[in-house]
């Protein structure tokens, strides 16, 4: 399974593609592992109009989808905004991210921030640096810490992979 995680923002939109590499099918074989295929941040100019920012997000995400060929897209659910104007901007960016995914024929899963942090760190109120460190550890990445927006996007993708794996095991056990 290959998942594109998107951390929506009107100045910085993070993206990260994570693939779950399955192990052998033998009962005692090693568990599957997670691999980072791509990650980064779509940086937008603060002085650009919102329409131009949304077009840049759409075209950038469309290019990432075409290049990386994910099976699914996962984004963070809206949870809280400082003010109404910020909430509206975030909603517009989320809508464009969903449009880019659906335009490519992909399903979109949405996860609450507490769910994402719990899936990656084990604690729903984890700090950004804790998320960054755990993402790097789970994906076996070395070097400097990832940008917070890219790490958050990878965390969203990891959350979806963990959730999908749990659902699959549950369905197998109860069928």
Describe the structure.
It contains five helices and five strands. It is α/β, with parallel strands linked by helices. The chain has a single domain, classed as 2-Layer Sandwich (Nucleotidyltransferase, domain 5). Helix 2 links the parallel strand 4 and strand 5.
Give a brief description.
This protein has 175 residues and is of the alpha/beta class.
Write the layout of secondary structure elements.
Layout: E1 2-7, E2 12-21, E3 33-43, H1 50-68, E4 72-76, H2 84-103, E5 108-111, H3 113-120, H4 128-138, H5 148-173
Parallel strand pairs: 1-4, 4-5
Antiparallel strand pairs: 1-2, 2-3
Helix pairs in contact: 1-2, 3-5, 4-5
**Tell me, what's the shape?**
globular
CATH superfamily: Ribonuclease H-like superfamily/Ribonuclease H
The fold-level CATH name is Nucleotidyltransferase, domain 5
Q: How confident overall, as mean pLDDT?
A: 90
Low-confidence stretches: none
Largest sheet data: 5 strands, mixed
Radius of gyration: 16 Å
* Strand proportion: 15-25%
Tell me the number of helical segments per DSSP (H or I, 4 or more residues long). Answer: 5
Q: What strand line-up does the widest sheet have?
A: 3-2-1-4-5
Could you tell me how far the N terminus lies from the C terminus, measured between alpha carbons in angstroms? 22 Å
Order of helices and strands: EEEHEHEHHH
Level-2 CATH architecture:
2-Layer Sandwich
At the first level of CATH, the class is Alpha Beta
Structural class designation: alpha/beta
């Amino acid at each position: 399974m290959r998942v594109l995680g998107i951390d929506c923002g009107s100045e910085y939109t993070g993206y990260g593609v994570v693939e779950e590499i399955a192990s052998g099918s033998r009962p005692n074989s090693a568990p599957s592992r997670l691999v980072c295929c791509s990650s980064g941040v779509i940086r937008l100019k603060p002085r650009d109009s919102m329409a131009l920012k949304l077009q840049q997000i759409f075209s950038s995400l469309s290019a990432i989808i075409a290049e990386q060929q994910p099976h699914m897209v996962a984004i963070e659910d809206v949870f809280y905004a400082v003010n109404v104007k910020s909430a509206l901007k975030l909603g517009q960016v989320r809508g464009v991210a969903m449009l880019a995914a659906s335009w490519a024929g992909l399903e979109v899963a949405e996860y609450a921030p507490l769910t994402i942090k719990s899936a990656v760190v084990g604690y729903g109120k984890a700090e950004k640096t804790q998320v960054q460190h755990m993402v790097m550890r789970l994906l076996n990445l070395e070097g400097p810490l990832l940008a917070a927006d890219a790490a958050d996007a990878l965390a969203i993708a990891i959350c979806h992979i963990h959730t999908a794996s749990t659902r699959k095991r549950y369905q197998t056990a109860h069928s």
